[in-house]
Write a structure and sequence with these properties.
Number of strands: 13
Structural class: alpha/beta
Oligomer: single chain
CATH class: Alpha Beta
Radius of gyration: 19 Å
Strand order of the largest sheet: 3-4-7-8-9-10-12-13
CATH architecture: Alpha-Beta Barrel
Number of helices: 13
Helix content: 40-55%
Distance between the termini: 25 Å
CATH superfamily: Aldolase class I
Shape: globular
């Protein structure tokens, strides 16, 4: 069924297809009984496997990665379709349009996407207003935060603090995005000194509040082992609660798509099946280096139930989908949950 629907969606540009899916989910969610029916079909209670991670109880280990519901429009709908948590954002203090279009491309031969969206979002004030208006929340919501593109890295801490403070009371956890390759020079914030300054500022802000919210860091798949070690040391030193591994990659190695095609597309972060092995290896590395004491959310290349199971078997506490959901559809969630339930 989804293959037919996907064939129609893939006749549209990736952004137009995304806009249609968001509209579809919002519209169908407003029809009485459809939300209940979706939960029964795609995530029946018998397949649920609750787990507690960084102080939060998740109905199952599956989440939707940041970038899909970036403007907090459909997080409850995604809960109806089987996800236990959704990361909204990346949210910046001010609304911004992002990079010029076209900025998202399908690599069908590789079951992959290349995007250079550039943190396009409706801005902190509008997104917080949506979170406030939402009816009873049926899903854990994380807030993925970043800086506005026009803000220099030297002033980035202030932008992250603004997004952090604004979202804090309205989400269940926060993820610090310093690894997106589509915002100029953002990844340099992963350098040890810059990252330490940023993380200490955010955790000091968190620790000054009476209500404790977990704070995570999302890292790039393009880091060396030494850079990952530096990040893990800073995470331990600053009291960060977990790590999201990994973001999109700038690598174009090993693709079935001709190099001429990827050259034509140009810059952007690659996601999907080409990331499966790298993501899994990084999860294994983090779990080994931290002796399994640091919660890891595995994301990147989770395309099949076996991929999800491999990430969890490697020591990940939770997994997030994005590109795999685009290519396989909502049955992927049910199939993963069935695999996990034995």
């Amino acid at each position: 069924m989804y293959k037919v629907f996907r064939r129609i969606l893939f006749m549209l540009s990736p952004e137009s297809a995304h806009a249609f899916v968001v509209f579809f989910m919002r519209a169908t969610g407003a029809i009485p009984g459809l939300s209940f029916a979706a939960r029964k079909i795609f995530a029946p209670s018998r397949l649920m496997s609750k787990r507690k991670v960084f102080g939060l109880t998740f109905d199952n280990p599956l989440g939707f990665a940041a970038g899909f519901d970036k403007n907090a429009r459909i997080f409850n709908r995604l809960g109806d379709w089987g996800f236990a948590f959704v990361e909204i954002g990346t949210v910046t203090p001010e609304a911004q349009a992002g990079n010029p279009k076209p900025r998202c491309f399908r690599l069908k031969k590789d079951k992959a996407l290349i995007n250079r969206m550039g943190f396009n979002n409706d801005g902190l004030q509008t997104i917080v207003a949506r979170l406030k208006r939402a009816r009873k929340r049926r899903i854990i919501v994380g807030g993925n935060i970043g800086k506005n593109t026009a803000v220099a890295n030297a002033d980035a801490v202030n932008d992250y603090l603004a997004a952090f403070r604004g979202l804090y009371e309205h989400v269940d956890y926060l993820t610090v995005n310093v690894s997106c390759p589509n915002v100029s020079n953002l990844c340099s914030l992963q350098n040890r000194d810059e990252l330490e300054t940023l993380l200490r500022a955010l955790t000091n802000e968190r620790n000054s509040r009476p209500d404790y919210k977990p704070v995570l860091v999302k890292i790039s798949p393009d880091l060396s082992d030494g850079q990952i070690d530096d990040t893990l040391e800073l995470i331990a030193a600053t009291g960060i609660d977990g790590i999201v591994a990994v973001n999109t990659t700038t690598s174009r190695e090993g693709l079935a798509t001709p190099r001429s095609e990827t050259d034509r597309i140009g810059a952007g972060g690659l996601s999907g099946k080409p990331l499966t092995e790298r993501s899994l290896n990084i999860v294994r590395y983090i779990v080994r280096r931290t002796e399994g004491k640091l919660p890891v959310i595995a994301v990147g290349g989770i395309m099949t139930p076996d991929d999800a199971l491999a990430a969890l078997d490697a020591g990940a506490s939770l997994v997030q989908l994005y590109t795999g959901y685009i290519y396989s559809g909502p049955t992927l969630v049910r199939n993963i949950l069935k695999k996990l339930s034995g």
